[in-house]
């Protein structure tokens, strides 16, 4: 199911079992933030333990927060770095736009369209249950897909440069999401997911 007219930030793009709001482009100068994030974030190749084997991905990640939170996914534990000035600025903008608060941010750097993310839910035990997750996109415009865990119904959104996507309520319980690889772009994409770690 394809969805395109993104003109209502209060519209729920999921038909049931969760809430996804797409605010569209919220920055007048997204190139500015893309450059700063590319140059100032402490990027590292992501790691995972799959079938007992430790692997490194081409995709790069970074983890920041109010405190040195420990966050575990794919069998790898990460410790949050202190906020940079640019991340705090973006956090303030997102919190105002979304009427939510966050205490951490996981960043992903996809170097080109060949890099993506497989189907998953952000349901790690460290995260606030049914808490909001705010996703910012800078750089390449990419398709972002949702799939219901039981009905298998799929929803596709096109995430634009400088845009904000909100996932709320029971979305992580009932839906998976992914960033499918594409041959349509050779440009890099930076994704920031602001979230709340339970204290």
From TrEMBL:
Cofactor: Fe(2+)
InterPro entries found in the cross-reference section: AlkB-like (IPR027450), AlkB-like_sf (IPR037151), ALKBH3 (IPR032854), Oxoglu/Fe-dep_dioxygenase_dom (IPR005123)
Alphabetical list of Gene3D superfamilies matching this protein: Alpha-ketoglutarate-dependent dioxygenase AlkB-like
Ranges for domain Fe2OG dioxygenase: 101-198
The keyword Metal-binding is annotated on this UniProt entry: yes
GO biological process per UniProt: DNA alkylation repair
One Pfam family in the UniProt entry: 2OG-FeII_Oxy_2
Keywords from the UniProt entry: Dioxygenase, DNA damage, DNA repair, Iron, Magnesium, Metal-binding, Oxidoreductase
Top-level lineage group: Bacteria
GO MF terms held by the record: catalytic activity, acting on DNA; demethylase activity; dioxygenase activity; hydrolase activity; metal ion binding; oxidoreductase activity, acting on paired donors, with incorporation or reduction of molecular oxygen
UniProt-listed PANTHER family: ALPHA-KETOGLUTARATE-DEPENDENT DIOXYGENASE ALKB HOMOLOG 3
Protein name as it appears in the record: Alkylated DNA repair dioxygenase AlkB
Organism: Sphingobacterium nematocida
């Amino acid at each position: 199911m394809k969805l395109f007219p993104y003109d209502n930030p209060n519209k729920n793009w999921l038909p049931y079992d969760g809430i996804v709001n797409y605010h569209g482009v919220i920055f007048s100068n997204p190139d500015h933030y893309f450059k700063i994030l590319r140059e100032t974030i402490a990027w590292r190749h992501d790691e995972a333990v799959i079938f007992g084997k430790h692997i490194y991905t081409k995709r790069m990640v970074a983890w920041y927060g109010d405190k040195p939170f420990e966050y575990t996914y794919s069998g790898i534990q990460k410790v949050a770095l202190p906020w940079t000035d640019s991340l705090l600025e973006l956090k303030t903008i997102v919190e105002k736009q979304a009427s939510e608060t966050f205490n951490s941010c996981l960043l992903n750097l996809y170097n080109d369209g060949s890099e993506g993310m497989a189907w998953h839910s952000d349901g790690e035990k460290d995260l606030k249950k049914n808490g909001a997750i705010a996703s910012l996109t800078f750089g390449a415009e990419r398709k972002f897909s949702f799939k219901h865990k039981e009905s298998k119904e799929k929803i596709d959104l096109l995430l634009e440069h400088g845009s904000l996507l909100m996932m709320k309520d029971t979305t992580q319980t009932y839906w998976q999401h992914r960033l499918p690889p594409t041959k349509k772009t050779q440009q890099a994409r930076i994704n920031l997911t602001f979230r709340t770690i339970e204290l």
